Model the fold of this input.
Amino acid sequence: MKAIVSLNSGSSSIKFSLFTVDGAGPPKLSAGGKIEKIGIAPELVAKTIEGEVLLQHAWPDGAALRHADLLEFLFAWAVEHLEDREIIAIGHRVVHGGIDFAEPLRVTPELLAALDKLSPLAPLHQPHNLAAIHAITRLAPDLPQVACFDTAFHHHRPEIATWFALPRELHARGVRRYGFHGLSYEFITRRLREIDPALASGRVIAAHLGNGASLCAMRDGKSVDTTMGFTALDGLMMGTRSGALDPGVVLHLQTQLGMSPDQVEDLLYRKSGLLGVSGVSSDMRVLSASAAPEADAAIELFAWRAAREIAALAASLGGVDGLVFTAGIGEKHADARARIARRLEWMGLRLDEAANAGNATHLSTPDSRVRALVIPTDEELMIALHTLRVARGDQAAPSAR
Done:
């Protein structure tokens, strides 16, 4: 039996999924798992879709273990224990594709070199995405690998949505708005066409709300505008990232407070957002359970910023027909959704409080002018679909189901 592996390698975790491939049909998930706490004390768990634990391992003293070391362990285990499956390709989430890469591509040394040059634009993600590719190349040099870009979904937005108000030569040199979370938004558009085809062809804002958070304005399933720009630091308030910031703050931190560029980067990427405002945690679940007023203030600011940006994207679309919540907070945190929705009542969004509390798919009341939904995202499936298409040499667009 043939199989595809999807890898999503982040700064402190590696998510992986195994999809079986049967003939010309779409890939089907059979197992998956995650390696967490990389750089501290890594833990690995792999399970079947039925919940059976296939592999569980911990490295209590493994702070020095790199992504490559952990992938080598996982790969060796897979080769020994998955004899009935032939892995025909591995697909990777690659956060930044820059100006040039607008569709999934088979990995070559030349592509890797080009993607490595984009690492400064996504320092929390790109180096780890590429580290996984390098590791698999060493372990199985003949195994096809496919890079799936988070920026690709936004590549064909209106030109005006890519500009900063900076000298034109900087735009030509790549200083422009790119947009991210594209694999998630691509899945949402495809799933929405199954759930509500009429809405999918209209004006929809998708809210990918997790530790990383962004919004995407879509018309007929295509990106029109999005909150993340040059880097994944822009836009919404996030778990540890500041989101959109007055550039003068960065200048002040460096010229008046004496912070180095590395210190500013660490502050904006790792010590801000929900963590920075609350002083408690970057995890929305922890903040919700906390009695600290600073925790509630952080949740309120998160909702205020999200509603404010949704209103801005409504202008880009010329109105809104639907709002889709997805990712960890968007799918599971009813209070955050409610706080956002209440700030959008002026645009005709009426929240069904009971449906929202129950994490239903449809969150809005029948008389709501703007429909609100929760759709769980599946970036790993999108990676598998793209990887299978590239591996087969098929240029047709993949189906999400």
